[in-house]
Design goal:
Layout: H1 8-19, H2 24-35, H3 41-45, H4 59-74, H5 84-100, H6 104-118, H7 141-149
Helix pairs in contact: 1-2, 1-4, 5-6
């Protein structure tokens, strides 16, 4: 179908999908599923102002693209997998299925991944503590070498 025959609703859908980093092939399938219309990858690419094919995109669509992209990058709450509980639930389903199929290696791997998830292994935050959870002992290099030589009790 020619791009000029697409109505505003379909064009908005295409622009917003591309702004959310969906690839042209994904958008082609989504348009087919959502609206029952077949479009080409090339026609989809003309709605992405960050690509060469979309260089001449009308300002109206560029504005929608930029607004959608900014909102998408700011709000990850709508992306289920960005939440620990959703990831753990998925890991649980996979581990149960792997165990039921007798795939203990995969089940074990999934359980380990869930433990890492709970322990914060997949975050950028790290906490360092000293002995018994206390403060980290800081020594100067001179103190360190003195301790090694045994001259400092």
């Amino acid at each position: 179908m020619a791009a000029s025959k697409l109505n505003t609703e379909i064009r908005t859908f295409i622009v917003q999908s591309l702004a959310c980093f969906d690839g042209p092939s994904t958008v082609v399938k989504a348009v087919q599923d959502e609206f029952g219309i077949t479009v080409t990858r090339q026609s989809i690419e003309t709605y992405d102002p960050t690509k060469r094919a979309g260089k001449g995109l009308a300002p109206k669509w560029c504005a929608i693209f930029e607004e959608t992209r900014a909102a998408f990058l700011e709000d990850t709450s709508k992306i289920g997998i960005s939440h620990r509980a959703v990831r753990l639930r998925g890991l649980q389903r996979m581990a149960e299925k792997a165990e039921a199929q007798g795939n203990m290696v995969l089940a074990s791997s999934l359980l380990e991944q869930a433990a890492k998830e709970m322990g914060g292994a997949f975050t950028n935050r790290r906490e360092l503590t000293g002995k018994d959870g206390g403060a980290v002992e800081v020594k100067s290099l001179a103190d360190f070498y003195a301790d090694l030589s045994g001259s400092n009790p």
